[in-house]
Amino acid sequence: MSTHDILHRLSETLASRRNADPEKSYTAKLFSEGPDSILKKIGEECAELIMAAKDGKKLNIVWESTDVIYHVLVLLAFYGLSIEDVSQEMRRREGISGIDEKAARGNK
Fold this sequence. Notes:
Shape: globular
Mean pLDDT: 92
Largest sheet: none
Structural class: mainly alpha
CATH class: Mainly Alpha
Radius of gyration: 16 Å
């Protein structure tokens, strides 16, 4: 099973939780609390990832990275977006210098 398949399945599952019972689904609970709650979790998980990376503990880096990715996918689903939207943007950026890409965004 590819990473692509896993992320797409997870993205679809998260979208399906939009109307689920917040008492029975952590994702539905995040949706019901709104974007501030989701953003707070992303911030917390990013801080934990930073600390894991500073400690250099590879397994903890993987765990915290997984938490960050999950919560970013929740945020995307909250706004009606999916991993496919991110994949399309990554394909668009492929082969473009990061400096050039960032400069082009500044002109929008």
